[in-house]
Design goal:
Distance between the termini: 34 Å
Structural class: alpha/beta
Shape: elongated
Order of helices and strands: HEEHHEHHEEHEEEEHEHHEHEHHHH
Number of strands: 12
Mean pLDDT: 85
Largest sheet: 6 strands, parallel
Strand order of the largest sheet: 9-6-5-10-11-12
Helix content: 25-40%
Length: 335
């Protein structure tokens, strides 16, 4: 059983296992299908007769780490783990269409085929169209029990309640979230910042001590996080432009949209396309102060905010509800 820090409250009935115990758990339970989301788990997994392995390539992890600019880490170990993850998988789930080329680049490496056929002693996977072994999915976002997307008709007060949740992480780069806080604060709106914690570390820069900024220290249980998001008129986030961010399906933004809350998205990311397609918020450059001011002015208009919320609700139902987000993958895995 895992005893180190975990994200808060796994669902009821979950078993939290030390990675070194995964192989024994799979042997004991005899799973037909094992879906693993992080390539860090790959060294602890081995082929098992009767069990299919699916690698859910949730994030471009190596791009994410390289974007941090760190020079104290040998990325070859990370690359070997990712290659083993692709080699073990009978199918790959790609979280968002922008990452499809990135995923195929890893899947088709000759080293992946060598690991699969020599080290793992499996039959070659790619004998025809590689796309037969890959499914693109949106991020499936389950809602807390008893909660639905915020109904249409939500009205803001005289000042917008702007929520900023976990806008920086160790790899985000300097000043990653400042426009999301500074612009609405200067315009006199309420700014509420959920200070992020990431595996036991709190980002000390997440909540600048400014007037007009209310801080909530995380992590929150998922239902409380969802309630916090729905209590905001809009959710804002901002990131420096990096190779990783352009491919990222940014979790807190996607969860806000699933909850029917429009977003001001200060990044070019996987989520940007969904926001634009559904008119579910605003996409602005992180350093475009006028763009931020314009988005906030529109959000303060009741009719515009209602339209954007309608877009968020449609996006939530059409693309982010688990049954919709995973439909293509479910069909592929059933065949």
């Amino acid at each position: 059983v895992w005893t180190r820090p975990t994200p808060p409250s796994p669902p009821a009935g979950s078993i939290v296992v030390d990675p070194t115990g995964l192989g024994a758990l799979i042997d004991d339970r005899g799973f037909d299908l094992v879906v693993f989301t992080n390539s860090n788990l790959a060294p602890h997994l081995s082929p098992k007769a009767g069990t299919r392995f699916v690698y859910d390539m949730f994030a471009p992890k190596i791009l994410e780490l390289l974007s941090s600019g760190r020079t104290d880490r040998d990325w070859r170990d990370d690359a070997r783990r990712k290659e083993r993850a692709f080699a073990l998988a009978d199918h790959v789930l790609v979280n968002g269409r922008r990452k499809l080329g990135y995923a195929l680049g890893w899947l088709l490496r000759p080293s992946v085929d060598r690991i699969r056929t020599e080290a793992l002693e499996l039959a070659p996977l790619i004998t025809g169209d590689p796309l037969d072994h890959v499914s693109v999915v949106e991020m499936p976002v389950p809602l807390p029990r008893g909660m639905e997307p915020r109904p249409a008709g939500h009205a803001a007060g005289d000042r917008l309640r702007v929520g900023v949740a976990g806008y920086t992480q160790p790899w985000s780069g300097e000043g990653g979230g400042s426009p999301a806080i500074e612009v609405p604060r200067r315009l006199g709106h309420e700014v509420h910042v959920l200070t992020p914690r990431h595996w036991g570390r709190t980002d000390a820069q997440a909540a600048p001590p400014h007037d007009g900024v209310t801080t909530v220290v995380g992590p929150l249980e998922y239902p409380a996080f969802a309630e916090w998001l729905q209590s905001m008129d809009v959710i804002a986030d901002s990131f420096p432009p990096t190779a990783e961010r352009r491919l990222a399906m940014i979790t807190r933004t996607t969860v806000a949209l699933r909850l029917g809350v429009p977003v001001i998205h200060g990044a070019d990311s996987e989520v940007s396309d969904l926001i634009t397609d559904y008119d579910a918020g605003w996409v602005v450059a992180p350093d475009d102060t006028e763009g931020w001011q314009s988005a906030l002015a529109e959000a303060a208009d009741a009719a515009t905010l209602a339209r954007k919320q309608g877009g968020a609700i449609a996006l939530s139902t059409d693309r982010l509800a688990p049954i919709a987000a995973l439909a293509e993958a479910a069909e592929a895995l059933a065949s």
